[in-house]
TrEMBL record:
Pfam families assigned to the protein according to its UniProt record, in alphabetical order: Solute_trans_a
Species the sequence originates in: Acanthochromis polyacanthus
Membrane topology: Multi-pass membrane protein
Membrane-spanning ranges: 29-48, 68-88, 94-115, 164-187, 199-221, 233-257, 277-297
Keywords for this protein: Membrane, Transmembrane, Transmembrane helix
Family annotation (InterPro entries): Ostalpha/TMEM184C
Annotated protein name in UniProt: Organic solute transporter subunit alpha-like
Length: 329
């Protein structure tokens, strides 16, 4: 009993994450090789994404190309932010905020991409207006099979867009607020007291997340059969996988670190080591997803009309308009 009470705790286990320079001093040969390999993976992910952006910008018309660039950029952006968080442990709060804000926009952009693949909002309404849509889908109501089907309408589509857009806006606002509170010592993930800010903000963000995923799932589950030639199921699966890895996996690791399951390893405390493991796993996972996304999005698209074709079309429209004006006179 006395021996258990006399156990001393390394002071580093109670300190904040080390500076980048101090962290490098504690790395052995294996640690340096691991850092170099993970940095190479994140760099390759980013370079492949930039090359893909140039390809899509040349091959796809506006506004669909901006949507594809947003959606396909989730994995490389998260990998890049995780690489920064790995090299600079004290910046994890900021890098996580950047990744979460970007992915919050991606959730909305996935919904827009589904609509654009079907011809846009107007063509979508012309095709599905009055068609009953099944709303008993995940993550909210996958078990509520008794829910009635709702006919698609302009108002219904507006609600679906608002449901996905609110997460992009509120998640960004709450993330910035969390960082501001964190810099002043008011936001701490280890503070589970009822008076702490983290225990109020994080559950609210969870509710926003579920609410935003539901509209995207509704549209996908009711329209994916029309888009299978575009590999939409594989694209949606990659989006879902990024969601699980960047949100659920990180939350589980943070809980294990707070519980002490992930042991302290000086100069990293238990919580800092959990964050480090999360960043390193994220880089490897996002690297693989980036390679898969390149295969899915780097495909042959319909050729864009040439400038000569546009000029001829504009000339015909002008001539038709002038002819109609003369007839009216």
């Amino acid at each position: 009993m006395e021996e258990s009470l006399n156990v001393t705790i390394d002071p580093a286990c109670l300190q904040e994450p080390p500076l980048a320079g101090d962290m490098l001093k504690h790395l052995d040969t294996f640690g340096l090789c691991l850092y170099a390999m993970l940095t190479f993976m994140s760099s390759v992910s980013l370079l492949l994404y930039l090359e893909q952006c140039v390809y899509i910008y040349k091959k796809v018309s506006y506004p669909k190309k901006t949507t594809i660039i947003w959606v396909s950029g989730a994995a490389p952006v998260i990998a890049t932010m995780a690489c920064f968080g790995m090299w600079i442990p004290r910046a994890v709060m900021i890098t996580d905020m950047a990744s979460n804000c970007y992915f919050a926009v991606v959730v909305y952009k996935v919904l827009i991409l589904l609509l654009q693949e079907l011809g846009g909002s107007s063509a979508f309404l012309e095709r599905f207006s009055g068609t009953p849509f099944k709303i008993s889908t995940g993550p909210c109501c996958c078990c509520c099979v008794c829910l009635p089907q709702v006919p698609m309408s302009r108002g219904m589509l507006f609600l679906l867009k608002i449901g996905a857009l609110q997460y992009a806006i509120l998640k960004t606002v709450l993330s910035v607020l969390s960082v501001i509170l964190w810099t002043n010592g008011y936001f701490d993930l280890s503070d589970l007291e009822i008076t702490g800010t983290a225990i109020w903000i994080n559950p609210f963000v969870g509710v926003l997340t579920i609410t935003s995923l539901w509209p995207v799932a509704i549209v996908f589950m009711n329209t994916n059969s029309f888009l299978r030639s575009l590999n939409i199921i594989a694209k949606y699966a990659m989006y879902q996988l990024i969601l699980v890895l960047s949100q659920l996996q990180t939350s589980i690791i943070n809980i294990l670190a707070l519980d002490g399951t992930i042991a302290c390893a000086p100069p990293l405390s238990s919580q800092a080591r959990g964050s480090m493991l999360s960043q390193q796993m994220m880089i490897m996972e996002m690297f693989i997803i980036s390679l898969v996304n390149r295969f899915l999005y780097h495909r042959a698209y319909d050729a864009l009309p040439s400038e000569t074709h546009d000029n001829n079309l504009n000339g015909k429209m002008t001539a038709s308009w002038a002819e109609g004006s003369l007839q009216q006179c």
